[in-house]
C-alpha cells in the first residue's frame, strides 16, 4: 500500500498543488477563474512547456542545457530571414528552424561526448553565448517581423477556446511520454542518469544517448521558438533570455532530480503550468515584475530543497 500511495502522490501531487494554487488565486482576484484567463494561462505556459520537456531529458541524464533560450533565438531568426528576405516557402522555413535547433543541440551533445568536456554546463554555456551572438550578428540586432498566416498559426490561433499552442504541447507530451516509457532509448536515458558507469558496463552507448538527448532538447527549443514567433508575429535576436531558468524550474517543480534518473513528462507539464499560473496571478494582483522575479526565484529554491529532502528520506 505504501508503494502505491507514494506512486500516486508522485504523479498527482503537482496537480493537487496546482489546484490549491488556483483556489487561492480565485479568492484573491475574481478575474482569475474565468475561461478567458485559464486559456490565457494555457497559452502562456506553452513555450516554457515545450522547452521544459527538452530540459527534462537533459536533467534525467544528470546534465543540464543552458543554451535553450539562445538556440530558440538563433533558429527562429534564421528561419525568419529565409522567409522574409529570401522568399523561402514558409513551411520550408519552419522546417529549417527545427533542423537548425536540432543541429545546435547535436553540437552540444558532440562537444560533451566527443570533446570530453567535463560537464554539460560547459558545452551548453558556450553554446548559449555563441548562438546568442550569432543571432545578433545575422539580424544586426534588429527584429524580423510580418509573417504569413501559416507561421502565425501555431502561436496565435485557437480551436474553439483552446489555444493551438497548448494542443501542440499535449501532443508533444504524449509522444515524449511514450518515448521515455516504451522505447529502449527512453530507458537508456533513465539508466544513464541513475548511474552512468553502470549503464556503460551494461552495454548502453552512453555517448549516443547523450547526443540524442541534447539534439532533442535543441529541437524542442526550436519548436518553442516557432510558437513564440507565431504568437508575436516577429523573430528577434534577444528572444528567449532567461528561458532556461523557467524550464529548469518547471522540471524541478515537476519532481525531477538534479542528480538524474528521476522525473516524468507529466510532472514537468504541471511544473510549467504552475509557473505560468503564478506569473498570471501576480499580474492580476498588480505585483511588479521585479517582485515576480523574486517570487519565482524563491519557488525554484523551494523546489530544489524539496528534491534534497526527497533524496534524504530515501
UniProtKB/TrEMBL annotation:
One of its GO terms (cellular component) is plasma membrane. Keywords: Cell membrane, Membrane, Transmembrane, Transmembrane helix. GO terms for molecular function: transmembrane transporter activity. It comes from Dictyoglomus thermophilum. It is found in: Cell membrane. Signal peptide: none annotated. Its main location: membrane. It holds the Pfam family BPD_transp_2. The lineage of its organism: Bacteria, Pseudomonadati, Dictyoglomota, Dictyoglomia, Dictyoglomales. InterPro entries: ABC_transp_permease. PANTHER family: ABC TRANSPORTER PERMEASE PROTEIN YPHD-RELATED-RELATED. This is ABC transporter permease. The chain crosses the membrane at residues 12-38, 50-83, 89-109, 159-179, 210-229, 235-258, 291-309. It is a multi-pass membrane protein.
Amino acid at each position: 500500500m505504501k508503494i502505491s500511495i507514494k506512486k500516486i502522490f508522485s504523479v498527482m501531487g503537482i496537480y493537487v498543488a496546482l489546484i490549491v494554487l488556483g483556489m487561492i488565486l480565485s479568492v484573491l482576484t475574481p478575474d482569475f477563474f474565468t475561461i478567458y484567463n485559464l486559456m490565457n494561462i494555457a497559452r502562456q505556459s506553452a513555450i516554457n512547456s515545450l522547452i521544459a520537456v527538452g530540459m527534462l531529458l537533459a536533467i534525467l541524464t544528470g546534465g543540464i542545457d543552458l543554451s535553450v533560450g539562445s538556440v530558440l533565438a538563433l533558429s527562429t531568426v534564421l528561419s525568419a530571414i529565409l522567409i522574409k528576405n529570401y522568399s523561402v516557402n514558409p513551411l520550408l522555413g519552419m522546417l529549417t528552424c527545427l533542423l537548425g535547433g536540432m543541429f545546435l543541440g547535436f553540437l552540444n551533445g558532440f562537444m560533451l561526448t566527443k570533446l570530453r568536456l567535463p560537464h554539460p554546463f560547459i558545452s551548453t554555456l558556450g553554446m548559449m553565448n555563441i548562438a546568442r551572438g550569432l543571432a545578433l550578428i545575422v539580424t544586426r540586432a534588429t527584429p524580423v517581423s510580418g509573417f504569413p498566416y501559416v507561421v502565425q498559426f501555431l502561436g496565435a490561433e485557437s480551436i474553439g477556446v483552446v489555444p493551438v499552442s497548448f494542443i501542440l504541447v499535449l501532443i508533444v507530451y504524449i509522444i515524449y511520454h511514450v518515448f521515455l516509457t516504451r522505447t529502449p532509448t527512453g530507458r537508456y536515458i533513465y539508466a544513464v542518469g541513475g548511474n552512468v558507469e553502470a549503464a556503460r558496463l551494461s552495454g548502453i552507448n552512453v555517448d549516443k544517448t547523450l547526443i540524442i538527448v541534447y539534439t532533442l532538447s535543441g529541437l524542442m527549443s526550436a519548436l518553442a521558438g516557432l510558437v513564440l514567433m507565431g504568437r508575436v508575429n516577429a523573430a528577434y535576436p534577444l528572444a528567449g533570455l532567461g528561458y532556461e531558468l523557467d524550464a529548469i524550474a518547471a522540471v524541478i517543480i515537476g519532481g525531477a532530480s538534479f542528480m538524474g534518473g528521476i522525473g516524468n513528462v507529466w510532472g514537468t507539464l504541471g511544473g510549467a503550468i504552475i509557473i505560468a499560473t503564478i506569473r498570471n496571478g501576480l499580474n492580476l494582483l498588480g505585483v511588479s515584475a521585479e517582485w515576480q522575479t523574486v517570487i519565482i526565484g524563491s519557488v525554484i529554491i523551494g523546489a530544489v530543497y524539496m528534491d534534497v529532502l526527497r533524496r534524504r528520506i530515501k
